Amino acid sequence: MSAAVAMTPLPSPLPWVSLAGGHGSLVPLAPSHHDDLCEATRDGELWRLWYTAVPSPEGMRAEIDRRLDLHARGSMLPFAILDSVGKAVGMTTYMNIDAANRRLEIGSTWYRRSVQRTALNTECKLSLLTHAFESLDCIAVEFRTHFMNRQSRRGIERLGARLDGILRSHQIVRHPQAEGSLRDTCVYSIVAHEWPVVKAHLRHQLARPRTH
């Protein structure tokens, strides 16, 4: 018979925090990041990708407001991703926060094209996971993505997350290029006892020389 897990819930809302690294940093999302983020989303016209939900320049103000409102409600902690010179190059969040069960998802993440597949991405995930497991004492951290988003799935798997399953016909897609289609959602997770190995793996990835 397994022992019961007696743990206090996560704080709600999660407190603001900044997470600094050698390649950039994560800071609390604020309206002042608007112009940088509009420039970032234009790099690759990311909002045109039908299997993602990246805001357009015209929708950026509303997206920032939406994420800040969800923080006030206790279901999201939104960050702006800054590069090494302090320019906002993307967004990420802790979301779908299950305070009672000490679980959350790292999601609603996007980076401008010029910094995708760079050390900044790996470092941001390492910072977010470290804070989740070592400061918030989470039991599990999830990642979710569209079944058709092969790049995102490969990136999540490179972190060391494992596929829990696929939620079939999970959500209705509202992107103009696929209006009304149904999204199959791939659900991945890292659980607390796996964290030391994942942490060592991510540190190794950051220490390796980059070829691109």
Write the topology of this structure.
Layout: E1 19-20, E2 25-28, H1 34-42, H2 60-72, E3 76-82, E4 88-98, E5 103-111, H3 119-135, E6 140-146, H4 150-159, E7 162-172, E8 182-191, H5 195-207
Parallel strand pairs: 5-6
Antiparallel strand pairs: 1-2, 2-3, 3-4, 4-5, 6-8, 7-8
Helix pairs in contact: 3-5
Which descriptors would you attach to this protein?
Aminopeptidase; eight-stranded mixed beta sheet; 212 residues; 5 helices; 29% helix; alpha+beta
Describe the structure.
The protein is of the alpha+beta class. The chain has one domain (19-207): Gcn5-related N-acetyltransferase (GNAT) (Aminopeptidase, 3-Layer(aba) Sandwich). 29% of the residues lie in helices and 29% in strands. The chain has helices at 34-42, 60-72, 119-135, 150-159, 195-207, and strands spanning 19-20, 25-28, 76-82, 88-98, 103-111, 140-146, 162-172, 182-191. The chain has an eight-stranded mixed beta sheet with strand order 1-2-3-4-5-6-8-7, sandwiched between helices. Helix 3 (119-135) packs antiparallel against helix 5.
